[in-house]
């Protein structure tokens, strides 16, 4: 029974409450912080569990009144409400019982890279950047550009953002993959629709303790900055290129004004990419034990098509099609796609876990 699964959470929550009021604990800041965090993580499931168990009690009490001449009808009406409440709480609790992605609360690096399609792909990479920037603002997230490489006629060959906010990764992890765009380029005189592609990678920002890098595995080169960057461009060796020799990963940064800032930013991206590889290996092992895999940031799979002539946006993972591409791109309304994706994968995870 679901109620039996909930009792250990309530017992642990109550135990933590007692511990946190113990004077010997309150004097130990490190332990206090650890226990407070654990209790905070249990807050939602404990609250839902209490409501659920109380609802079960209320249902039994009202069933006992069904044969009462005076209260029977009231009890019958109340039971309808309580049964509906019970079902809603069960769905909420099943989601809360799912194993939590350890990266969900982290900030996220969002990398957009122009793929097939040349200048048109770079232009769409710019459009996608603008849409994600608006989405970040809608969610109350802060963002900063870590590095960028502009396209020949506008847009970006590549741009990397750091998006900061609680739960940023939990929302954006579904965006990793190949985004295909179909539209008539401005330079197309015959009005023909062209197809191009942009790849998006989603990588959680990681703490230094989560990824260890041997300095001997790095080759760090400094060079003159190039491109649009103001008066300092081409006057100082501020651009930094870091090569991780074992994996061949190369990260270049020239956006900061100092070599130190560029090196720091490049190292953050390198750590995120190495962590991404580590996570993919972990998920690959887990996949053999479960049916679905979510949010790996895999760039090889085509996840979405943006068809501008039809004003259509289609997410191929859940067969979702919306005919409001213009509004979604203009206002960054990606939650109209992300919410159904979350619901879909939660339902699959609940089925896999047999909850």
UniProtKB/TrEMBL annotation:
Domain named Prokaryotic-type class I peptide chain release factors: residues: 224-240
Family statement drawn from the similarity comment of this UniProt entry: Belongs to the prokaryotic/mitochondrial release factor family.
Coiled coil start-end: 72-99
Gene Ontology MF terms: translation release factor activity, codon specific
UniProt-listed Gene3D superfamilies: 3.30.160.20, 3.30.70.1660, 6.10.140.1950
Protein's organism: Campylobacter showae CC57C
Region (Disordered): 284-304
HAMAP family: Rel_fac_1
Record note on modification: Methylated by PrmC. Methylation increases the termination efficiency of RF1.
Keyword terms, alphabetized: Coiled coil, Cytoplasm, Methylation, Protein biosynthesis
Subcellular location: Cytoplasm
N5-methylglutamine modified-residue sites: 231
InterPro entries: PCRF (IPR005139), Pep_chain_release_fac_I (IPR000352), Pep_chain_release_fac_I_sf (IPR045853), Prokaryotic/Mito_RF (IPR050057), RF-1 (IPR004373)
Protein name: Peptide chain release factor 1
Keyword field contains Coiled coil: yes
Its biological purpose: Peptide chain release factor 1 directs the termination of translation in response to the peptide chain termination codons UAG and UAA.
């Amino acid at each position: 029974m679901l109620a039996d699964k909930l009792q250990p959470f309530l017992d642990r929550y109550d135990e933590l409450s007692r511990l946190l009021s113990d004077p010997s604990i309150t004097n130990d800041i490190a332990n206090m912080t650890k226990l407070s965090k654990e209790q905070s993580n249990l807050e939602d499931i404990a609250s839902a569990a209490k409501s659920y168990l109380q609802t079960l009690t209320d249902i039994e009490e009202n069933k006992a009144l069904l044969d009462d001449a005076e209260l029977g009808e009231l009890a019958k009406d109340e039971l309808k409400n309580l049964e509906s409440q019970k079902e809603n709480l069960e769905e909420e609790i099943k989601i809360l019982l799912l194993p939590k992605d350890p990266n969900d609360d982290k900030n996220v690096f969002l990398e957009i890279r122009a793929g097939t399609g040349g200048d048109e792909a770079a232009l769409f990479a710019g459009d996608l950047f603008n849409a994600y920037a608006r989405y970040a603002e809608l969610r109350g997230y802060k963002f900063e550009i870590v590095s960028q490489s502009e396209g020949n006629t506008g847009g970006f060959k590549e741009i990397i953002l750091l998006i900061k906010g609680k739960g940023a990764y939990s929302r954006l992890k579904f965006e990793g993959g190949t985004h295909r765009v179909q539209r008539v380029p401005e330079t197309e005189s015959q009005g023909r629709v062209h197809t191009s592609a942009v790849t998006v990678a989603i990588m959680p920002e990681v703490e230094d303790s989560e990824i260890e890098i041997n300095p001997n595995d790095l080759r760090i080169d400094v060079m003159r900055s190039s491109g649009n960057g103001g008066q300092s461009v081409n006057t100082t060796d501020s651009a930094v290129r870091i090569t991780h020799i074992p994996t061949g990963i190369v990260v270049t940064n020239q956006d900061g004004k100092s070599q130190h800032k560029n090196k720091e930013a490049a190292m953050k991206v390198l750590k995120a990419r190495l962590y991404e590889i580590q996570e993919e290996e972990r998920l690959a092992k887990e996949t053999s034990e479960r049916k679905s895999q979510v949010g790996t940031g895999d760039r090889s799979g085509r996840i979405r098509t943006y068809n501008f002539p039809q004003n259509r946006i289609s997410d191929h993972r859940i067969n979702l099609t919306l005919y409001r591409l213009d509004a979604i791109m203009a206002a960054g309304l990606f939650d109209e796609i992300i919410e159904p994706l979350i619901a879909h994968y939660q339902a699959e995870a609940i089925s896999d876990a047999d909850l």
